[in-house]
Amino acid sequence: MGLKGFVEGGIASIVAGASTHPLDLIKVRMQLQGEPHLPNPSLQVYRPVLAGNVSISQAVSQSRVGPVSIGVRIVQSEGVPALFSGVSATILRQTLYSTTRMGLYDILKNKWTDTETGNLPLTSKIVAGLIAGGVGAAVGNPADVAMVRMQADGRLPIDQRRNYKSVIDALGQMTKQEGVGSLWRGSALTVNRAMIVTASQLATYDQVKEMIIEKGVMGDGIGTHVTASFAAGFVAAVASNPIDVIKTRVMNMKVGPGAEPPYAGALDCALKTVRAEGPMALYKGFIPTISRQGPFTVVLFVTLEQVRKLLKDF
């Protein structure tokens, strides 16, 4: 029963992750906007200004660029395949992180469910999600770092790009150039985010699904699954976005030999981000986050329910 939960969760997570990857890439690019230590030529416009009698060009960074604009610019400057940059890392991440969290959550949920009533309190679901998310994130952090870097690479100046060929190449280069420890860069943030996402996403889905069925609004069908999925995606996006912004920036920072890193840690990154860009900077990329979390969560749980039906006799 335990192994079956891992298989079901893994299949559903890989399908959901691969199909919504372009939205995740746009979210990452938006979250990296405004970093003071890194120019972003793809998100700059040039306008002439007069200095005396001399006309010069001055780069003026746009303060806000929407997800549609970023998506269009990625296609224009890097081509359509760029929308799937890092998809191999996404698949590996889902294989390690999501398979672990979905399977472990299923085990804990079954273990803690009252055998007589078949009920599991919301608090127990949240605790199961926190534990499953934390363990899954620790396992999948190397793939998460590789995914963020591969997704963000196109926004760097050409001479600064890492140009990873695949997730395996990314992990190999990171280990060789920055040490094994770089594979777990930002792991504390990854674990915290995963605990929040898993607890809010899985617990909300189960709770809303149970409420819909118990109150007789709908039966245990695709309508219920989609409705519960959207609710779970929204709650997870609101709860996790600030940590996700900080995690993305810490993982993506480039540290040269002997140079001081842009951020000393998660707290330093959060403080510098808020000071330089304001508190709402922690919700950068929220539109693509919710745009991605919605479809991702729907695909995840609808696929999961269908896989469960297919494997119910095994």
TrEMBL record:
<dbReference type="Pfam" id="PF00153">
    <property type="entry name" value="Mito_carr"/>
</dbReference>
<comment type="similarity">
    <text>Belongs to the mitochondrial carrier (TC 2.A.29) family.</text>
</comment>
<feature type="repeat" description="Solcar">
    <location>
        <begin position="4"/>
        <end position="111"/>
    </location>
</feature>
<keyword id="KW-0472">Membrane</keyword>
<feature type="repeat" description="Solcar">
    <location>
        <begin position="120"/>
        <end position="211"/>
    </location>
</feature>
<feature type="repeat" description="Solcar">
    <location>
        <begin position="220"/>
        <end position="310"/>
    </location>
</feature>
<dbReference type="InterPro" id="IPR050391">
    <property type="entry name" value="Mito_Metabolite_Transporter"/>
</dbReference>
<dbReference type="InterPro" id="IPR002067">
    <property type="entry name" value="MCP"/>
</dbReference>
<keyword id="KW-1133">Transmembrane helix</keyword>
<dbReference type="InterPro" id="IPR018108">
    <property type="entry name" value="MCP_transmembrane"/>
</dbReference>
<keyword id="KW-0813">Transport</keyword>
<dbReference type="InterPro" id="IPR023395">
    <property type="entry name" value="MCP_dom_sf"/>
</dbReference>
<keyword id="KW-0812">Transmembrane</keyword>
<protein>
    <recommendedName>
        <fullName>Mitochondrial uncoupling protein 5-like</fullName>
    </recommendedName>
</protein>
<keyword id="KW-0677">Repeat</keyword>
